[in-house]
């Protein structure tokens, strides 16, 4: 069976991870990746053997830098069956007319407005809604973390009545040197709700959710503090068992392992040999899971650089109708080495 030809427009934090993931899929072929500036990521893409495509007006800059290109972005789009757009926030929408011109399907990221696509996507929650769609938006890293958690609890434990969540956002990714804060915690924004609740509603329509967010001076992971009111009383043991039994969610027991921070989670990822130290799973602190009648509390970490990568792979399969939900998630999990149960 012929493999689907996938192009990645944008080769930054998310794009390079999606490109690597595509190369591991038995039903996909990576056409190439696109960059607009000849920085170190362009050099590494070529060194890894990826075909590099650039804007026609910037080709001379790449030539001057000694970077071999395989053609222009339009050439890449023309050759592909579907494009994963991982360009910076707001840029993806400007490329949509080009994708439409060539009659190509596209996957967008959570930094785009929801109306850029026909459906906002989280694989565990609404895979079937995205089947055969032309334009799909994978929700943001924080929203992905919230949705994986809520959809698991809503389907495996008890129906949810309302959700209140506080998002402690990392200030920047590790590679970024021009962002902060360095010595402050900043409301993001001070008004309530933050955009995360609105984003959740694009997938779990009608749920009662309010979110608040702050930015903290760290680069490693986000942290979420969640309070869920259930429609009926729940037991802590049932919640933990549901989380343990769900793909793309892992637990850590701080009392047993001594892991009590995002820094130690990343260190474990290094120690177990995860590529780039990535943790695409939601990382739940088991010790934080607490139930009181019909209220549930928990805390979990979200690795902003990698959590949406498996979602992009599943979104490709949904758009091209390559597999049903369970089959796609299994293939993605197996090829990317995703876990469930305990991290260690």
TrEMBL record:
<dbReference type="Pfam" id="PF02800">
    <property type="entry name" value="Gp_dh_C"/>
</dbReference>
<protein>
    <recommendedName>
        <fullName>Glyceraldehyde-3-phosphate dehydrogenase</fullName>
        <ecNumber>1.2.1.59</ecNumber>
    </recommendedName>
</protein>
<dbReference type="GO" id="GO:0005737">
    <property type="term" value="C:cytoplasm"/>
</dbReference>
<keyword id="KW-0520">NAD</keyword>
<keyword id="KW-0324">Glycolysis</keyword>
<dbReference type="InterPro" id="IPR020830">
    <property type="entry name" value="GlycerAld_3-P_DH_AS"/>
</dbReference>
<dbReference type="InterPro" id="IPR000846">
    <property type="entry name" value="DapB_N"/>
</dbReference>
<dbReference type="InterPro" id="IPR020829">
    <property type="entry name" value="GlycerAld_3-P_DH_cat"/>
</dbReference>
<comment type="similarity">
    <text>Belongs to the glyceraldehyde-3-phosphate dehydrogenase family.</text>
</comment>
<feature type="active site" description="Nucleophile">
    <location>
        <position position="141"/>
    </location>
</feature>
<dbReference type="GO" id="GO:0047100">
    <property type="term" value="F:glyceraldehyde-3-phosphate dehydrogenase (NADP+) (phosphorylating) activity"/>
</dbReference>
<dbReference type="GO" id="GO:0004365">
    <property type="term" value="F:glyceraldehyde-3-phosphate dehydrogenase (NAD+) (phosphorylating) activity"/>
</dbReference>
<comment type="subunit">
    <text>Homotetramer.</text>
</comment>
<keyword id="KW-0521">NADP</keyword>
<keyword id="KW-0560">Oxidoreductase</keyword>
<feature type="binding site">
    <location>
        <begin position="140"/>
        <end position="142"/>
    </location>
    <ligand>
        <name>D-glyceraldehyde 3-phosphate</name>
    </ligand>
</feature>
<feature type="binding site">
    <location>
        <begin position="196"/>
        <end position="197"/>
    </location>
    <ligand>
        <name>D-glyceraldehyde 3-phosphate</name>
    </ligand>
</feature>
<feature type="binding site">
    <location>
        <begin position="13"/>
        <end position="14"/>
    </location>
    <ligand>
        <name>NAD(+)</name>
    </ligand>
</feature>
<dbReference type="Pfam" id="PF01113">
    <property type="entry name" value="DapB_N"/>
</dbReference>
<comment type="pathway">
    <text>Carbohydrate degradation; glycolysis; pyruvate from D-glyceraldehyde 3-phosphate: step 1/5.</text>
</comment>
<dbReference type="GO" id="GO:0009089">
    <property type="term" value="P:lysine biosynthetic process via diaminopimelate"/>
</dbReference>
<dbReference type="InterPro" id="IPR020828">
    <property type="entry name" value="GlycerAld_3-P_DH_NAD(P)-bd"/>
</dbReference>
<dbReference type="InterPro" id="IPR006436">
    <property type="entry name" value="Glyceraldehyde-3-P_DH_2_arc"/>
</dbReference>
<dbReference type="GO" id="GO:0006096">
    <property type="term" value="P:glycolytic process"/>
</dbReference>
<dbReference type="GO" id="GO:0050661">
    <property type="term" value="F:NADP binding"/>
</dbReference>
<dbReference type="GO" id="GO:0051287">
    <property type="term" value="F:NAD binding"/>
</dbReference>
<dbReference type="InterPro" id="IPR020831">
    <property type="entry name" value="GlycerAld/Erythrose_P_DH"/>
</dbReference>
<keyword id="KW-0963">Cytoplasm</keyword>
<feature type="domain" description="Glyceraldehyde 3-phosphate dehydrogenase NAD(P) binding">
    <location>
        <begin position="4"/>
        <end position="141"/>
    </location>
</feature>
<feature type="binding site">
    <location>
        <position position="111"/>
    </location>
    <ligand>
        <name>NAD(+)</name>
    </ligand>
</feature>
<feature type="binding site">
    <location>
        <position position="304"/>
    </location>
    <ligand>
        <name>NAD(+)</name>
    </ligand>
</feature>
<dbReference type="InterPro" id="IPR036291">
    <property type="entry name" value="NAD(P)-bd_dom_sf"/>
</dbReference>
<dbReference type="GO" id="GO:0008839">
    <property type="term" value="F:4-hydroxy-tetrahydrodipicolinate reductase"/>
</dbReference>
<feature type="binding site">
    <location>
        <position position="170"/>
    </location>
    <ligand>
        <name>NAD(+)</name>
    </ligand>
</feature>
């Amino acid at each position: 069976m012929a493999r689907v030809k996938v192009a990645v427009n944008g080769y930054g934090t998310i794009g390079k991870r999606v490109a690597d993931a595509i190369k591991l899929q038995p039903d996909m072929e990576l056409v190439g990746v696109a960059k607009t500036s000849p920085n170190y990521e362009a050099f590494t893409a070529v060194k890894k053997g990826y075909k590099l495509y650039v804007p026609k007006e910037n080709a001379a800059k790449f030539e001057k830098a000694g970077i071999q290109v395989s053609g222009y972005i339009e050439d890449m789009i023309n050759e592909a069956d579907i494009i994963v757009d991982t360009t910076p926030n707001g840029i993806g929408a400007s490329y949509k007319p080009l994708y439409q011109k060539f009659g190509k399907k596209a996957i967008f990221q959570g930094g785009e407005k929801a109306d850029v696509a026909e459906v906002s996507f989280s694989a565990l929650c609404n895979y079937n809604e995205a089947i055969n769609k032309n334009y799909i938006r994978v929700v943001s890293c924080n929203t992905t973390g919230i949705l994986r958690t809520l959809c698991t609890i809503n389907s495996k434990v008890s129906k949810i009545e309302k959700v209140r969540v506080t998002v402690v956002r990392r200030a920047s990714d590790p590679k970024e040197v021009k962002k902060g804060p360095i010595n402050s915690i900043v409301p993001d924004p001070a008004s309530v709700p933050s955009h995360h609740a609105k984003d959740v509603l694009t997938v779990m329509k009608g749920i009662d959710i309010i979110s608040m967010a702050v930015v903290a001076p760290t680069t490693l992971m986000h942290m979420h503090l969640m309070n869920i009111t259930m429609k009926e009383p729940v037991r802590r043991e049932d919640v933990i068992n549901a989380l343990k039994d769900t793909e793309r969610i892992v637990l850590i027991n701080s009392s047993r392992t001594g892991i009590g921070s995002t820094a130690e989670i990343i260190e474990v990822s290094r120690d177990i040999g995860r590529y780039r130290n990535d943790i695409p799973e939601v990382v739940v602190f088991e010790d934080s899971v607490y139930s009181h009648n019909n209220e549930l509390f928990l805390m979990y970490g979200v690795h902003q650089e990698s959590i949406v990568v498996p979602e992009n792979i599943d979104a490709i399969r949904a758009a091209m109708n390559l597999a049903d939900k369970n089959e796609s998630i299994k293939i993605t999990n197996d090829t990317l080495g995703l876990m469930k149960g305990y991290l260690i």
